[in-house]
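Suppose a colleague, Dr. K., hands you the sequence of a protein chain of 381 amino acids and asks what its three-dimensional shape might be. Before reaching for any lab equipment, you can write down a predicted structure in token form. Begin with the sequence itself:
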Amino acid sequence: MKPYYNQKFGNAGALYSLGRSTKEDLNAARTMVAHILSAKQNEITFTGGGTESINLAILGYCRAHHTQNKAKSFGHIITTNFEHPAVLESCRQLIKEGYEVTYLPVDSHGLIQADDVIRAIQPNTILITIMYANNEIGTILPIVAIGKSLQAVNHQRIADGLPSIAFHTDACQAGEYLNLAVNSLAVDMLTLNGSKIYGPKGIGILYHRQGLKIEPIIFGGGQENGLRSGTENIASAIGFAKALEIAQLSRKELKVLTGLRDYMIAEITKRIDNVVLNGDAKLRLPNNVNFSIGGIEGESAVLYLDAKGIACSTGSACSAIHLEPSHVILAIGRSHELAHGSLRFTLGRETTKSDIDTTVKELTAIVKRLRSMSPVNIEAK
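The predicted structure, expressed as tokens, is then:
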């Protein structure tokens, strides 16, 4: 990224040679991303992050495909009740504009069945948006099964004279760990962001299948083939593409990370009583450990751990400022008290067994201290 800050600083939309050079490099980055996703170059749009990509997918697609039957709604969208706030807020905005949204519940592990999604389809359904892996509890959802089932549904809908339904997935958490080949996933749109793959913050992409009609949500000079106006962020796009390439090459190390994850889960369960693992024990990202701990406030534990040099969270970083119980933990059936006592630990490339041992040791002492100060003790279940 460094040369694009002080040497190759040309505007990619300019005709002079420095601009043309950066345009070529931007397209090379786009080609690299497309190759990793088994997509075409013109199916990749760079955005200002995962949130913008999700907004463009949901708002842009629905506004371009609203039905004319205003007696019911402009169209029907299907999602789940534990999506990232970027999805939930986009859907809330569409409800204000006259669309209808079905929020499917997940089970106690944060899972949903493809059949549940298909049963929720209505004649005026235009979009299904379901995350690939949850950002808080790490549960991996059956995106392939949903996509394949939807393809069969769309085949019949077209035969019946009904419009096909698009399938979008928020794959931000999956970029480092899971298969991203869009054809095998059977998705029409896919969102990724840089900050989840050791790349720069403030950059993301939207994959959108060729021929899919999407309206822009940012207007101006018509960059990114008219879908995302604004001077291109060349350095971050270059950084995103390289980070994604490295992430996919690093997938061979996932067995080690999965082993560390399972070790940490076992150690916490063994050393601390009255705890419950949030999310499925096996169908989860290899870097995710999320527990609800009875008798503590998660925010207090985060601050005590931070004082020991250990960074963790109580939920989504995007909503941490609100200090409200996690909607994800509530969605899997935990009480408000246990939702307040949830902690998410995220492992990474540099995490060691020694790091985990230190963290578990400190967490055990902190939980004991917090419980000694608490007037109540909530049972974890």
